[in-house]
Amino acid sequence: MNFVKRILQEEYPFIFALPAFMWQLFFLYLPLVSIVVFSFLEFSPLQGFLGFSFSYYVKIFKLVYLKVILNSFFLALFTSIICLVISYPVAYFLALKVKRFKTLFLFGLVLPSWTNLIVQIYAWFFLLERRSIISKLLCYIGIFSEPRHMINSYFSTMIGMVYCFLPFMILPIYTVLEKMNRSLLEASSDLGASRFVTFRKVILPISLPGIYTGLLLVFVPAFGEFVIPSLLGGAKKAYWGTVIVDKFLISGEWRSGFAIATVGVLFLGLFIGLLFSVFKIVKVLKTKRFKLKIQASKK
Amino acid sequence: MVERNIFVRILHPIFVSLIYIFLYLPIVVLVLFSFNKSSIASGWSGFSLKWFKALLQSPEMLEALKVSLIVALTSTFLSVLMGAALVFASRWWKKSFLFNIFNINIILPEIIIAVGLISIFTFFKIPLGYESLIAGHTLIGLGFVVPIILSRFKELDPMLTEASTDLGARPLQTFSKIVLPLLAPAIIVSCFLVFTLSLDDFFISFFCSGVKVQTLSVYIFSLVRQGIDPRVNAISTCLLAVSSICVLVLCSSKIVGQVFGYGK
């Protein structure tokens, strides 16, 4: 009783933090560990625990599953690259060019991404259909010889992916550019740099953290995406997310599902880790070269 | 020099407006067709509200809406309360890792969170349903609530809580009478945010809803799978209206702007 009293009186901050921590522990960390552990366990409903084994990993060690992971990887990669290419000019425009109604522009950008994901995808059904405006327009221009269904293809999947993930790339880049010190631009042009040089040597390096955040926010969820490929892609290609949904909700092979989930997360973690260490090494090398240059100029 | 000017002056704004058209064209078409008389997507055949009426008469839809609202309200309440209490504790516990561990909720693919949740719920033999849905949605909510409330809390004068403690208030009193009212703007904003997130969530709902309970997202998904259905347009229009209101509140607030970068 004394112990409880002491905790209540002296260690109360601990008690305030406890619910959130417990929630996080029970519903995030414990499940994450359980995914990995269950993928190794040999378990039968009648005899209970039987021991550890790699049998489920051996089971999924097939070319099909490698292909599935690669499909997801390339889907996420293409989505991130296309999003980056589109987002940079938009973020640049919003941060540095727009003077009035900035909040309105941002509101417009955020709104689609805050609506239901299924609604966002469903909206494209109307535009990619055979009798849709776009199809008729393309016919009129002469790209299509006759109205065509554009749904259920890799193209429509990519459109859906870019549409849903675009704001998550634009916003981080915008945030970084918005916070940038404007006098740097003036200084650069005063020192005689052309617009392009200012962009390459001043703006781009400053916006790199935003680009990294954007890549992370797009690549990771895109890798695990299931809804967009299955609704807009016509389930022609299997992805990591599709396979997990199939294993858990349709075929009920939970054990192989755990193994695939673990392998996918591992792959994702390794790739992201590798990417960011490459970025870091490049940065270190650049700083070193810069320092050497300064030293040389001092001599 | 002239070419560059053309690029900067004309092409850049045109590109940005094209992106905005890309973002809004599907939504506008979707909303238009929800007022369409005929059920086929081919053309406009007159204004009607019959799909909205059909929605109100569909018991499945109303049931799904009820589930979604219960889950969204409960998880909003839980995550905001726990998030605020956690931030209050940071008054004494000044370690940033305490808050950084909540970032993973946003970054991790949701499908992994969902798979983990159903594995843990089946392991402890708790049937899937409201409990698992609320657990998952609150988890996602915490990832957003903690940074928002924390950034507001950092702006507050630490003297205020000190003064209240010195004057003999118990921690719970300090929390409810001093800290909560001061954090109110951040708390309201996070409520809207978590509410929309929970209402729009698909992955966790899809995995954790079990056999009996079905959220709105899952119900819409089952309809959409069968192709174009004007009732879905009607639901979508309603959902769009709800999220526009929430985003309006979010964008007009200063705090979210500081954390996530929109608004000013």
Shape of chain A: globular
Average pLDDT of chain A works out at 84
Could you please say which CATH topology of chain B applies here?
A: MetI-like fold
In CATH, the architecture of chain B is: Orthogonal Bundle
Distance between the termini of chain B: 34 Å
**What is the class of chain B in the CATH system?**
Mainly Alpha
- In the CATH hierarchy, the architecture of chain A is Orthogonal Bundle
Beta-strand share of residues of chain B? under 5%
Q: Number of DSSP strands of chain B? A: 0
Class inferred from helices and paired strands of chain A: mainly alpha
Summarize this, please?
The complex is a heterodimer of chains A (299) and B (264). Chain A is mostly helical and 299 residues long. Chain A is 80% helix and 3% strand.
Offer a few descriptive terms.
heterodimer, A: mainly alpha, MetI-like fold, B: mainly alpha, globular
Describe what this molecule looks like in 3D.
The complex is a heterodimer of chains A (299) and B (264). With 299 residues, chain A is mainly alpha-helical. Chain A has one domain: Orthogonal Bundle (MetI-like fold), CATH 1.10.3720. Chain A has 13 helices and two strands; from the N terminus they run ααββααααααααααα. Chain A has helices at 2-10, 12-40, 55-60, 63-97, 102-114, 117-128, 133-141, 154-179, 183-190, 195-223, 227-232, 240-250, 254-298, and strands at residues 41-44, 48-52. Chain A is globular and about 80 Å long. Chain B has one domain: MetI-like (MetI-like fold, Orthogonal Bundle), CATH 1.10.3720.10. Chain B contains 14 helices and no strands. In chain B, helix 3 (59-89) packs antiparallel against helix 10 and helix 3 crosses helix 12 (216-224). Chain B starts with a helix and ends with a helix. Chains A and B meet through helix 2, helix 4, helix 5, helix 6 and helix 8 of A and helix 1, helix 3, helix 5, helix 6 and helix 7 of B.
